[in-house]
Amino acid sequence: MTDLPILDHWIGGAANPGTGTRLGDVYNPALGTVQKHVRFASAADVDTAVSAAKKAYEEWSETSLTRRTAVLFAFRELLNARKGELAEILTAEHGKVLSDAAGEIARGLEVVEFACGLSHLLKGTVSEQVSNGVDVTTLKQPLGVVGIISPFNFPAMVPMWFFPIAIAAGNTVIIKPSEKDPTASNWIAELWAEAGLPDGVYNVVHGDKEAVDALLDNPDVASISFVGSTPIARYVYERGTAAGKRVQALGGAKNHMLVLPDADLDLVADSAVNAGFGSAGERCMAISVVLAVDSVADTLISKITSRMATLKTGDGTRGTDMGPLITGAHRDKVASYVDVAAADGAEVVVDGRGIEVDGDPNGFWVGPTLVDRVPTTSTVYTEEIFGPVLSVVRVSGYEEGLELINSGQFGNGTAIFTNDGGAARRFQREVQVGMVGVNVPIPVPVAYHSFGGWKASLFGDAKAYGPAGLDFFTREKAVTTRWLDPSHGGINLGFPQNS
Ligand code: NAD
């Protein structure tokens, strides 16, 4: 029994407690206390949600493009008008500062706006008179019920990479948000209802592996869009595709910024601090390694440390720069890498453990941390830390930096800082990474391009949102048509030839 509020699932247009008996704790990470519980779905609960979505699909997939567009526009207007409420939910459960929460919502809204153009996006193609009296048309049709499984670090934006386009295309969705910050998905469900989306088109089931496995195994779920850590992304991809589903599974990252000697070092220092410590480093596109060419490394480190000294860590509702980490366990894991760095021979230039914060002492704090001369054999370099720990690795020049980036297991994002157009052009051609910034530290593509990494950062070949997202949530059908006219007819068993 608990006196705290319990967050239910959202199935068929209403809150639903399901039949599962397990509850998860939802913390306020800035206070270090549990603020509510969330229900964990049983496999039967997931099946109930899938049945509701399957039923809603019959009508939603037949709903006119005009009507669907009106619902999408209404949702966009409501979300834009009430985004402040959602930002407060994100800060209370994730811990990111309010301005960063607002930024997350803005990037999600972009995808909603892209999906508002559904009538244009869903146009097929026609080839007239491919043979005498024969036309070929391609249609883009929805898949059916689609599953979305999201990570803790973007509780609003990552689901919004997928569901606006899925719904616009005529699919119905089941979201399984992170159990660590689940409330945003229910808040969004209520907004959809207000926007006029029919019941059962957008459903939320909460939980952990049991819920995920039930989605992966349910034969009525046509596709899975997963975002999270690499080991789980690989697992979801393998189990989902083995069950015959279309799967896109985005995994972890270790993003490098290569700094050439001719770069503007003030811009580089600003970018490294913003991209390294924004959202306490809990971003898949965070910069976690600065590859500094030897000749400028000392100057750059002094510019970075002077900026770090100005950062205020604390409760994200109080105008601070950086909030807490998501859980106590994650805080301890991130902090342990600072010991590893020292033991492996790196130089801990700024140690964020035990910093003074503007907030509750029991919050899950680690302050901005900088480690120099990190050996590339150290786990500080090879593993994703997912916290405010920025590593510096000194390199002799472009070639060594490129070789390090390309030999890593991940390929999510990277950036080069230089004023040499030739070097930048060479980098964008040679680097083995899915998203590249030139003097841009977090090169997250806008909504009308597509998001996704290479190698262990994306399993499957479908990137998220933009044109790739539209392709993922539709399947093409080619229709070859001939209308009889009296001149046709007769028997001919030969393979048809064009004439
Ligand atoms: P996670 O892999 O622990 O969890 C992601 C989702 O999988 C959650 O919904 C969780 O409930 C579920 N899950 C966890 N363990 C599972 C299991 N054993 N079986 C089935 N499902 C399971 O990731 P996280 O800690 O929530 O998020 C951080 C990770 O996500 C980082 O590695 C980060 O790089 C990555 N990420 C990647 C991108 C990208 O676009 N590539 C974007 C955001 C986050």
Automatic annotation (TrEMBL):
Protein's UniProt name: methylmalonate-semialdehyde dehydrogenase (CoA acylating)
A GO molecular-function annotation: methylmalonate-semialdehyde dehydrogenase (acylating, NAD) activity
Entry superkingdom: Bacteria
An individual GO BP term: L-valine catabolic process
CDD domains: ALDH_F6_MMSDH
InterPro entries, per the entry: Ald_DH/histidinol_DH, Ald_DH_C, Ald_DH_CS_CYS, Ald_DH_N, Aldehyde_DH_dom, MeMal-semiAld_DH
Start and end residues of each Aldehyde dehydrogenase domain: 24-479
Keywords: NAD, Oxidoreductase
Organism annotation: Nocardioides luteus
Keyword Oxidoreductase: yes
SUPFAM superfamilies the record matches: ALDH-like
Enzyme Commission number(s) from the entry: 1.2.1.27
